[in-house]
Amino acid sequence: MAAQFATEAGDGPMDNALWRYALRVYSRSGVEAQLLRMQDEHGADILQLLTVLWLSEQGLEVNEAALVNSEYLNWKQDMIEPLRQQRRQADRLEHGDLYELLKKSELEAERYGLGILWARNKDNRADKGRCTVSDLMLVCSSEKECTALAELSQG
């Protein structure tokens, strides 16, 4: 499947500008908690939210169809969500090694998911006039949470 991804300037499906951006933004104070709250309380997709933030930072158009493409949605359903469910079921204290292995596997599945989203969105048209909050609301319906995430992601 990796051969399907176009590469440019050292970017590839598993190491690309979106992945590097996601790591940088996720590590900012408050961002992880905000993203997890949006996921758990509002059903938001963290990878889609990070993609919207990246597109906005790059001045690229947010294309809703590219965010919800079938390849990504299938990957999420078949790989990311089952691994997340298994990790959540594993008791961290009783099954520590298994929990950590599932966590690492979930992260790798998410990394690949971001590779799919990057490939579908990296060539979007420039669109500097879009509002990050309204773009975020394409993948999460809570304006309050989207506003908070937009502010936190600015660093």
Describe the structure.
There is one protein chain. With 155 residues, the protein is an all-alpha fold. The chain has one domain. Helices cover 65% and strands 0% of the residues. Helix 2 runs antiparallel to helix 8 and helix 3 packs across helix 6. The radius of gyration is 15 Å and the shape is globular. The protein starts with 16 loop residues before the first helix and ends with a helix. The N terminus is likely disordered.
Q: What is the number of E strands?
A: 0
Strand content: under 5%
Which structural class fits the helix and strand makeup?
A: mainly alpha
In whole angstroms, the N-to-C terminal distance is 35 Å
Number of helices: 8
Low-confidence stretches: 1-9
Shape: globular
Briefly characterize the structure.
By secondary structure, the protein is an all-alpha fold. It is built from eight helices and no strands.
What order do the helices and strands come in, and which of them pair?
Elements: H1 17-26, H2 31-42, H3 46-58, H4 64-67, H5 70-89, H6 96-121, H7 132-136, H8 143-153
What are the defining features of this structure?
8 helices, disordered N terminus, 155 residues, mainly alpha
